C-alpha cells in the first residue's frame, strides 16, 4: 500500500502525543535492561499497534529499565521518550516516531513570518510534517490541515521532511506564504508479498514470486481479473479466445506442465475460487507463485502454479462510503466491410462451386444474373426494381425469386453495444471491530441486433474482524456471486455467434436473399435452390421464442479464529463452505416460414422442427478446513520463522437434467406443459484431499536466506496404496548488497540478490474415478414395445498402479534495485521436468479387445526465462510534482517430450524429442504462371493426393493442373507428394514449418500523474506464434472452404488469382479446396504468424483538489475516460480475424472480440 494512504489519518491537529480512545490499550512489561527497539517490538506483540519511524532520524539504540503492569501504552511512551528529542503521534493502530521540531531561541534574529500549507501529490494535507529553518534551531510542525506558521530570517531556507516522503528545501525569498508539495519516497517502506499461508518481505524472498497490487489496475474500467493480469506479470500467460460477455480468460503459468493440460490453483483469501468471479474493486493484491519452492506448500493442486488473491479489508478510521461507475460502448476489433452486392456475392460463390463440381451454388440462371446485374448499384430497394419477385416455376406455381443487395452482417450484428458497471463500498471500525461491505453490478449487451443477448453479474462481499480478547481474534469473509446470460437462437451456433459446422450459421446468407418476403413472412427456401436460406438461423432469432439462459450462483463464507498463544507463537484455524450452482435452460419451438407465396410450412431443419424444453441443474458443495501455526524467533543476527499446518478439502458434484417435447405453450417455459416424450438424466461424483504442510525460513543478518517447505498430500483420485505423496522444496538467497565489500556501491545499488530453488510437486489432474473400472449407462435409440431400453456398456480396462504425475523445478533468479530503487530488475531461468505423465500404455495385442489403459508412462521438460524491468521517478513541472513509471515484462518457454512409448516415431502421436506445438506441413512454391508450366511439372511430380478437389472435378479440363494452381515441392524426391510413412524417419514431403505455442510474451505498462491528472497505458503482445487455419476457418478461406459463403470481404476479388492478377494471395478459384484439398493441409504459404501487439488500455483521469471538495464532505472525486483493446498490430494475412480468436478455436469461429470506449467517475465520502 502506498504510504500516502497508510499515513493519511495518523496525525491529529498540532499534537505531539494525541489523546484517543485507542491510547487506553494496556500492556504488561517488566525488564531490568531492555533495548528500546525490543520494547517497541514487545508492545507490537501484545497489541495491534504498528510503530513507524525513520531509522536515520530516530535513534532507539539505548537500554532502559521498565516495570509496567497493566499500564496504558501512551503512558509508557511518554516516560521513555521524555527529554530525548523524540516525539510520537497515535491514531488508530499506528504510532509514528519522529525528531522533536526545534523551537525558536532568543538569540535568533527573526525578521518575518512565513505561513504555508504542505500537501502530497494528490493535494491531501500532510499532518505533522517537520518545517525547520536551515542552519539554526527554529522549526514547527504542520497542523491537521497541513498548515504551518514560523518566524524566520529574511533570507531563510526551509527544510521540510516527513516520514515516507523525500526531503525538500525551499528558499523563503520574498514569499509570505508557501504551498509545498512533498513527493512520496516509496523505497522507505519494505514491500510485503503474499505467499502461501502468510506474507514475506520482498527482499527476503527466495522463490519465484511476482505480485501486483490494486494500484496497478485500479484505474482500469474492467470487470474481469484475468483482464487486469494480462501483460503485467512475466510468464503469467492470459488468453481470451472469445469476446462473449462474461467469458473468463485462460491462465497458464510458465508454459506446459503436462500433456494432459491443467490450470493454476486460484486461492481467494486462502480458499480455492474462480478468478473472474471476484469483483476487481475488491482486490488488494495478486501474488503468482511460479516455482515449486513457492508452490510446494499447496501440494497436489499446485503443479500448474498458484495465484493468491487477497481482497481488501476494513481499515481503522471513521465510516467511509465510496461509489464508482463506468459506462462504455463496445465495437468490433476487426474489419466488417463485406460484399453486400447480390450479384458479386452470388457470382464469386457460383464460380467457386462450378470450378469444383460443375454447377452453380445458387442455381441462378443467366436470366437471374441479368436481374441481379440490373440492381447491382441499388443500395436500397427501388420500387421499379424490387428485390423480391414472384414468378412461375416449372409446375406453374408461384415462387419467390430474390435479387437483393442485402447487408446480412449488419442485420445480425450491432455496430456498437453498451456496457455499464457500478460499485459501492462501506467500511468502518471501532476499538474492537472492523467491517467492510462491498457490492457491484455490471451488465453487457451482446453483438446481436435481433433479440440481443445480454450478460449481467452481481457481486457482494462482507468482511468483519473482531478482537474477542487481547489474544483471540475472529473474522468472517462472505462472498456472493450471481451471473445470468440470456440469448436467442440456436444452442450450438449463435449462442457462440459464429457457430460450428454442424449448424453453419454464416452460410447460405447470400446478399441476394432477404430475411422477409413482401408480405412480412419469414423467408426459407428460395424455390430454385435446395438449400434453406442460412439454415433458418434468422427464423429462430426473429421468433424471439427460441432462447436460453445460463445462470450461476455461488456462495462462499469463511470463519477464522487466530489465537496468540505465546510470545511469537500464534495459531490460526478456519473453515470454509462453498456452494456453486449452475442452472441452464433452452427452449426450442417449431419454426414456420413461407415456402411459396401464401403457403407456410414448418421447417424440417434439425432444431427448428422440434418443440422442446431442456433444463439442467448442477451443483457443487465444497468444504475446506485449514489449521496452522506460526512461530517467529530473533536471536541477534539470526531470524527464524516456522509454520506448519493441516488442510482437508471435500467436494460433491451433482447433476440433474430433464427435457420434454411438445409443450402446450410456445411462450410458457415450464415442464408441466409437456405432452410428449420426457427424459431425465443425472450424475454425481465426489473427491477429497488431505495434507499436512510446513515452511521454515532462516535469515542471517538480512544477507543469507534459506527456506524449506513441503507437503505430504493424499487424494481420493488414486488407488488406496498410491494416494499419498511427499513433495518438498528448498531455496536459498544471497543478498550481496548487504556484504561489507559491497559498501562502496550501496549509494547506487540498493539491493542485489541472487536466489536458487529446487522443488517437486504432485499433479492429481485426472478424472475422479480414473482408477476404477466403471460401466456407463444409456438408452438404445430405437423402441422395443414402445420403450427405449436401458443398456449398460462394458467397462474399460484401467491400470491398477495409477499415481501422481511429478513436476520437479530448478529455478535461478536475480533481483537488483539501483538509483534509490528507481530502477528495478528481476530475472529468472528455470527448468521443469514433469515425470510419469498419464498417457496410453503399451500397445496390446488386438485379441485383447479393448484400448490400452492409461499409465504413468511419459515425461516432459519445459525450459524458460522471464524478465521484469521497471523505472519510477518524480520531478517538478511548474512547481508541482510530476511522477511517472514504466514497467516492462518479457518471458519465453519451450516444452519438449523426453519420454514416450512411440518406437516407430509416428507423427500423429507424441514422440521423444518432439517440441510441443510442432506443425508439420508441405513446402509450396507459389503459383504456376502458365498451364504449360503446370503440365510440365505434373509430368514429373504427382500432386493428386493433395489436389483432391481438382482430381474430382467434373470435366477433363478442370481436372488438369493449370495456371494459378499451387506448386508443391517434392522434398523426398519420390515423385509423389505425400506423407510417406508418416514417421520421423519417413515423413514424406512434410517438414516442421511452425509451432502453435506462444513465444516471447511481453507487456509494457506506463503511468504518469501531475496536478491531479493521471495517465496510464498498457501494451501487451506475443512475439511469435503460428496458426494454420483449419478447414472450417470460413472467415479466412471464405469460398475456398465452402462455396456458399455469406460474408465475403469487399476486396476479395483482388485476393483471387486470375490471368490479370497473377500475384494474388489465393490460387485459382476452386470451392472446397480448404475443406479437403491443397489448402486444408498445413503448408508454408498459408501458415499464419499470430504475433501481435495490442493497446490493452489507455486511461486519462482527473482528481479534483480536496480544497474544492471539503465543503461538500467529499474526500475524493475522480473522473476519467478510458479505452480497452483500442489498437491491434498483427502479422495476420487477414484483418477480418482477431489473432486472439484463434486461441480457443482453430477455425476462429468464436464470439467476436471487441474494443471498448468508456467514461466513469469515482467518489468517496
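Q: What amino acid sequence fits the structure above?
A:
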Amino acid at each position: 500500500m502506498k504510504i500516502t494512504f497508510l499515513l493519511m489519518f495518523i496525525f491529529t491537529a498540532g499534537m505531539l502525543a494525541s489523546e484517543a480512545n485507542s491510547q487506553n490499550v494496556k500492556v504488561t512489561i517488566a525488564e531490568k535492561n531492555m533495548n528500546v527497539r525490543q520494547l517497541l517490538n514487545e508492545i507490537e506483540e501484545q497489541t495491534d499497534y504498528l510503530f513507524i519511524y525513520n531509522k536515520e532520524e530516530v535513534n532507539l539504540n539505548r537500554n532502559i529499565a521498565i516495570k509496567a503492569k497493566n499500564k496504558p501504552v501512551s503512558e509508557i511512551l511518554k516516560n521513555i521518550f521524555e527529554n530525548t528529542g523524540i516525539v510520537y503521534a497515535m491514531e488508530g493502530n499506528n504510532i509514528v516516531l519522529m525528531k522533536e521540531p526545534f523551537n525558536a531561541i532568543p538569540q535568533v534574529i527573526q525578521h518575518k513570518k512565513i505561513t504555508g500549507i504542505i500537501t502530497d501529490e494528490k493535494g491531501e494535507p500532510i499532518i505533522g510534517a517537520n518545517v525547520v529553518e536551515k542552519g539554526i534551531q527554529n522549526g514547527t510542525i504542520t497542523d491537521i490541515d497541513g498548515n504551518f506558521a514560523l518566524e524566520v530570517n529574511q533570507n531563510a531556507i526551509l527544510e521540510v521532511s516527513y516520514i515516507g516522503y523525500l526531503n525538500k528545501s525551499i528558499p523563503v525569498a520574498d514569499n509570505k506564504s508557501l504551498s509545498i508539495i512533498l513527493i512520496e519516497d516509496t523505497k522507505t517502506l519494505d514491500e510485503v508479498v503474499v505467499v502461501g499461508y502468510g506474507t514475506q518481505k520482498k527482499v527476503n524472498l527466495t522463490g519465484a514470486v511476482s505480485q501486483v497490487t490494486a494500484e496497478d489496475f485500479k484505474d482500469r474500467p474492467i470487470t474481469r481479473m484475468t483482464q487486469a493480469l494480462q501483460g503485467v506479470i512475466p510468464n503469467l500467460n492470459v488468453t481470451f479466445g472469445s469476446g462473449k460477455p462474461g467469458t473468463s480468460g485462460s491462465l497458464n503459468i510458465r508454459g506446459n506442465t503436462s500433456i494432459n493440460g491443467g490450470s493454476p490453483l486460484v486461492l481467494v483469501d486462502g480458499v480455492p475460487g474462480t478468478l473472474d468471479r471476484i469483483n476487481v474493486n475488491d482486490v488488494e493484491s495478486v501474488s503468482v507463485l511460479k516455482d515449486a519452492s513457492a508452490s510446494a506448500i499447496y501440494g497436489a493442486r499446485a503443479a500448474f502454479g498458484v495465484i493468491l488473491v487477497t481482497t481488501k479489508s476494513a481499515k481503522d478510521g471513521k465510516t467511509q462510503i465510496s461509489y464508482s461507475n463506468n459506462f462504455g460502448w463496445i465495437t468490433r476489433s476487426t474489419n466488417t466491410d463485406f460484399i453486400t452486392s447480390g450479384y458479386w456475392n452470388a457470382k464469386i460463390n457460383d464460380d467457386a462451386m462450378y470450378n469444383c463440381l460443375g454447377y452453380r451454388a445458387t442455381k441462378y440462371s443467366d436470366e437471374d444474373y441479368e436481374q441481379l446485374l440490373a440492381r447491382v448499384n441499388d443500395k436500397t430497394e427501388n420500387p421499379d426494381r424490387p428485390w423480391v419477385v414472384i414468378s412461375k416455376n416449372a409446375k406453374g406455381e408461384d415462387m419467390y425469386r430474390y435479387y437483393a443487395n442485402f447487408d446480412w452482417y449488419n442485420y445480425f450484428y450491432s455496430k456498437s453495444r453498451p456496457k455499464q458497471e457500478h460499485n459501492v463500498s462501506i467500511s468502518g471500525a471501532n476499538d474492537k471491530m472492523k467491517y467492510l461491505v462491498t457490492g457491484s453490478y455490471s451488465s453487457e449487451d451482446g453483438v446481436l441486433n435481433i433479440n440481443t443477448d445480454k450478460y449481467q453479474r452481481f457481486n457482494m462481499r462482507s468482511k468483519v474482524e473482531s478482537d474477542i480478547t487481547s489474544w483471540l481474534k475472529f473474522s468472517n469473509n462472505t462472498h456472493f456471486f450471481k451471473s445470468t446470460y440470456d440469448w436467442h437462437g440456436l444452442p450450438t451456433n449463435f449462442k457462440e455467434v459464429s457457430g460450428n459446422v454442424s449448424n453453419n450459421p454464416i452460410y447460405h446468407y447470400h446478399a441476394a436473399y432477404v430475411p422477409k418476403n413482401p408480405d412480412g413472412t419469414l423467408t426459407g427456401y428460395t424455390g430454385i435452390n435446395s438449400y434453406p436460406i442460412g439454415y433458418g438461423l434468422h427464423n429462430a432469432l426473429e421468433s424471439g421464442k427460441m432462447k436460453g439462459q445460463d445462470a450461476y450462483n455461488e456462495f462462499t463464507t469463511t470463519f477464522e479464529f487466530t489465537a496468540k498463544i505465546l510470545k511469537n507463537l500464534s495459531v490460526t484455524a478456519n473453515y470454509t463452505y462453498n456452494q456453486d450452482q449452475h442452472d441452464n435452460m433452452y427452449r426450442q419451438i417449431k419454426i414456420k416460414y413461407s415456402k411459396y407465396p401464401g403457403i407456410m410450412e414448418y421447417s424440417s431443419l434439425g432444431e427448428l422442427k422440434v418443440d422442446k424444453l431442456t433444463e439442467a441443474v448442477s451443483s457443487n458443495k465444497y468444504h475446506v478446513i485449514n489449521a496452522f501455526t506460526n512461530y517467529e524467533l530473533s536471536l541477534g543476527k539470526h531470524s527464524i520463522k516456522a509454520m506448519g499446518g493441516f488442510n482437508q478439502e471435500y467436494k460433491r458434484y451433482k447433476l440433474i437434467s430433464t427435457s420434454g417435447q411438445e409443450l402446450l405453450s410456445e411462450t410458457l417455459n415450464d415442464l408441466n406443459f409437456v405432452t410428449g416424450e420426457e427424459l431425465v438424466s443425472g450424475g454425481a461424483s465426489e473427491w477429497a484431499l488431505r495434507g499436512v504442510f510446513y515452511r521454515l525460513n532462516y535469515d542471517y543478518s538480512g544477507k543469507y536466506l534459506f527456506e524449506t517447505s513441503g507437503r505430504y498430500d493424499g487424494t481420493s483420485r488414486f488407488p488406496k496404496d498410491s494416494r499419498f505423496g511427499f513433495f518438498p522444496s528448498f531455496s536459498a538467497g544471497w543478498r550481496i548488497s548487504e556484504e561489507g565489500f559491497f559498501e562502496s556501491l550501496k549509494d547506487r545499488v540498493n539491493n542485489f540478490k541472487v536466489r536458487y530453488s529446487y522443488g517437486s510437486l504432485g499433479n492429481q489432474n485426472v478424472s475422479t474415478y480414473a482408477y476404477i473400472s466403471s460401466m456407463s449407462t444409456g438408452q438404445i435409440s430405437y423402441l422395443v414395445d414402445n420403450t427405449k431400453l436401458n443398456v449398460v456398456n462394458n467397462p474399460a480396462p484401467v491400470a491398477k498402479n495409477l499415481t501422481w504425475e511429478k513436476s520437479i523445478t530448478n529455478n535461478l533468479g536475480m533481483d537488483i534495485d539501483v538509483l534509490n530503487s528507481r530502477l528495478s530488475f528481476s530475472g529468472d531461468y528455470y527448468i521443469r521436468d514433469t515425470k510419469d505423465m498419464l498417457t496410453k500404455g503399451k500397445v496390446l495385442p488386438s485379441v485383447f479387445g479393448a484400448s490400452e489403459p492409461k499409465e504413468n508412462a511419459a515425461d516432459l521438460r519445459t525450459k524458460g526465462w522471464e524478465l521484469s524491468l521497471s523505472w519510477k521517478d518524480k520531478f517538478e513541472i511548474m512547481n508541482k510534482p510530476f511522477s511517472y513509471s514504466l514497467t516492462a515484462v518479457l518471458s519465453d518457454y519451450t516444452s519438449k517430450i523426453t519420454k514416450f512409448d512411440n518406437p516407430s516415431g509416428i507423427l500423429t502421436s507424441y514422440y521423444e524429442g518432439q517440441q510441443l506445438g510442432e506443425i508439420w506441413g508441405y513446402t509450396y512454391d507459389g503459383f504456376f504462371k502458365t498451364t504449360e508450366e503446370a503440365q510440365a511439372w505434373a509430368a514429373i511430380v504427382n500432386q493428386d493426393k493433395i489436389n483432391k478437389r481438382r482430381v474430382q472435378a467434373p470435366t477433363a479440363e478442370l481436372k488438369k493442373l493449370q495456371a494459378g494452381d499451387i506448386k508443391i515441392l517434392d522434398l523426398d524426391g519420390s515423385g509423389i507428394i505425400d506423407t510417406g510413412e508418416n514417421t520421423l524417419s519417413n515423413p514424406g514431403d512434410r517438414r516442421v514449418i511452425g509451432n502453435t505455442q506462444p513465444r516471447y510474451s511481453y507487456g509494457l505498462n506506463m503511468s504518469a500523474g501531475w496536478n491531479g491528472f493521471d495517465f496510464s497505458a498498457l501494451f501487451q503482445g506475443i512475439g511469435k506464434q503460428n496458426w494454420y487455419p483449419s478447414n472450417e476457418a470460413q472467415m479466412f478461406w471464405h469460398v475456398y472452404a465452402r462455396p456458399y459463403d455469406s460474408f465475403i470481404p469487399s476486396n476479395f476479388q483482388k485476393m483471387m488469382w486470375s490471368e490479370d492478377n497473377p500475384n494474388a494471395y489465393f490460387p485459382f478459384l476452386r470451392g472446397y479446396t480448404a475443406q479437403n484439398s491443397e489448402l486444408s493441409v498445413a503448408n508454408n504459404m498459408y501458415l499464419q504468424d499470430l504475433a501481435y501487439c495490442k493497446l490493452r488500455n489507455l486511461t486519462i483521469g482527473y482528481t479534483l483538489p480536496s480544497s474544492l471538495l471539503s465543503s461538500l464532505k467529499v474526500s475524493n472525486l475522480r473522473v476519467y475516460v478510458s479505452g480497452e483493446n483500442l489498437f491491434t498490430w498483427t502479422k495476420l494475412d487477414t484483418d477480418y480475424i482477431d489473432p486472439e480468436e484463434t486461441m480457443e478455436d482453430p477455425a476462429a469461429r468464436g464470439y467476436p472480440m471487441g474494443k471498448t470506449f468508456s467514461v466513469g467517475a469515482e467518489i468517496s465520502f
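Q: And what stands out in the fold?
A: The chain is about 10% helix and 45% strand.
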